[in-house]
Structure formats: C-alpha cells, structure tokens
Amino acid sequence: MNTSQFALTVPDLAETIDFFTQRLGFRLDMIFPADAPRIAVLAGQGITLRLEAIEAQGGSVYSPKDPRDFVISSQNNKDANDGWHTGRAGMQYRDLIRGRLGGRVIASHIRILEGGETPDYVHYHKAIFQMIYCKAGWARVVYEDQGPPFTLEVGDCLLQPPEIRHRVLESSPGLEVIEVSCPAEHETWTDHNLRLPTCEVLPERLFGGQRFTRHRARDARWAPWRLEGFQARDTGIKSATNGLAAVNIVRSDSEITAMANGHADAFLFLCILQGELVIERDAQENHQLMAAHNCVIPANVDYTLGASAGLEMLEVSLRAEGCASI
C-alpha cells in the first residue's frame, strides 16, 4: 500500500507527538536527536508525518577557538534546574561538554527523578559509539540477544554497539547516568516488530563491528593505570570496539602528581566522580576540578595531573580514525 508523506512544522514537538500517538493511533518511528528532540517521524492512517519543531532546546554546537584549549564544565549549578531539558521518553538531559566539539561528541548527564516504570520502547541508535556509566541509583534494562533484563547499578558501565535494540524498563528515583556518544546528534529509531528479551543469547554477536559489553563494578579488578601511582578498572570497551574507544574508571589512594605526555586521540574526556584533580599545563595554566566537574583534554598537549587521595574519575577516549568522518 502506498503511503503519503507530509512534513509539518509544529510549535511543541512533544505535545504534537502525544496527540498523534495517543489520540489518533499513530506510531513513533524516529526521533532526532534524543537529548533535545526537534524532528520526529510518525506513521499511521496510511500516511507518514515528518514533524519538525519551530525551536528546540538543548546544547549549542561549536568548536573551541583554539584546539589546544581545555574544555571545562561542571554538573553543579546554583539552580537545580539550570541546563536541564526534557528529551526522549521523558528523561532529563544536560550537556557536559560545552559546544560538543563542533558536533563530533556529546557527553550527557541524564536523570529520571520519579523512578518507577519508564515510558520507553524498543529502539536503536544510529551512532558510531555510545556508552553509559551509572552515576547514581539503578535502572532495569534489556538488550537484544543479551539474555533477560538486568539491573545497571552505581559504577556499572555499558557499551551500546551501533543499532543494538534495547529498552529501559524501570528505574530508581533519582537515577543518574553519564552517556557519551559520537556523533553528537544521531537518529533514534523505534523497532515495532522486535520483542525483548529475544529467545537467543549471543554475547559474541557483533553490531556494526562492536560487541555489547556490560562492566559490573562489584566484579571488577583494579590494575595499574597508564600513569604511575593511579589504579584503573578497564571496562572492556577497548576490546569490544576493536580499539575505537576506551573507557576506564580511575582512582588514587593517595596524593599523586604525574606528568602525562600529549595524546593523539580525537577525544579524551575526564568526569570527576569524587575527590579533586588539578590539571596543569606549562606552569601557567591550571584547572582545579572537583566532583561533578568535567574536562576534555586537547590532543598533543603535555600536562600534569595532581590527584587528591580518594580521587575517582571516568575516562573516555576515542581514536582519531573513528571520528574522521564526523
């Protein structure tokens, strides 16, 4: 059957989606981007609708003026609502990287305040890379060919390989996660035909050349990090992405000062989970980061890290070849 296609510009995208899906029986096929939707594709009544918001909320997209600049931001705000906006499935988002590095990467702080059953659906993302770290609370989730639903807990980390179908089922009140994705804006599609969990369990299945990975904090082992004196737990994401990305949780048990040589990655992101970290360059520039601060470290810049006892941070890196086409 032929389907007519129409494009509409609407003042309130979420309200319009609710009208067509809840009152007229349309289905949501695609939303873009997930953190601050401004485009949606719906189907029903023999037609396809492309809805586009007149205005969209969310983060700006630009690059640092100087590629050698450290990009610093904080999750702490005087106003608890500052920077938050509603994204896909009613979840609240705010940006952790000022400017999103010209649209190459987005790091989002995502929260669900009320908890309980989540109004989510089976979906997938057209992204090159996407990981999730659980910062507070818990979420019950399910993934294609990865067995029954499981609980993502504090300190756990997931790799969501490209286009793997998944769904958030429920969460605790006050759930908070850190999500890093490349590119910053990507399409989220609904899969109306697949039911999760699937019958097969295929932990070695590849999705876009990557393997689903679940890192559980309570089972993790600490090992020496790349800088002397620090320890890290490897989430397994480097292996699962064939070196495209690496994600580590790093800690220091005592005060440490260490010199780091400039890296060649397209992206190196630090999110301070607890404790304090001072990043110094050329003895003329230093940044004091505390819990809830974040930093993107530019490539080919030598720097010194000064860590407090009890520091813990999330480190995410992306290889330059992986972002070359973004």
Keywords summarizing the entry:
326 residues; mainly beta; 2,3-Dihydroxybiphenyl 1,2-Dioxygenase, domain 1; Jelly Rolls; 3 domains; 7-stranded antiparallel beta sheet; 3 helices; 6% helix; 44% strand; globular
Write the layout of secondary structure elements.
Layout: E1 4-10, H1 13-23, E2 27-32, E3 39-44, E4 47-53, E5 71-74, E6 85-86, E7 92-95, H2 100-103, E8 106-112, E9 116-117, E10 123-125, E11 129-136, E12 139-143, E13 150-152, E14 157-159, E15 166-171, E16 175-182, E17 188-190, E18 206-207, E19 210-211, E20 213-215, E21 223-224, E22 231-234, H3 237-240, E23 245-251, E24 256-260, E25 267-274, E26 276-281, E27 285-290, E28 293-296, E29 303-307, E30 312-318
Parallel strand pairs: 1-4
Antiparallel strand pairs: 2-3, 2-17, 3-4, 5-28, 6-7, 7-8, 8-16, 9-15, 10-17, 11-14, 11-16, 12-13, 12-15, 14-20, 18-19, 21-22, 22-23, 23-30, 24-29, 25-28, 25-30, 26-27, 26-29
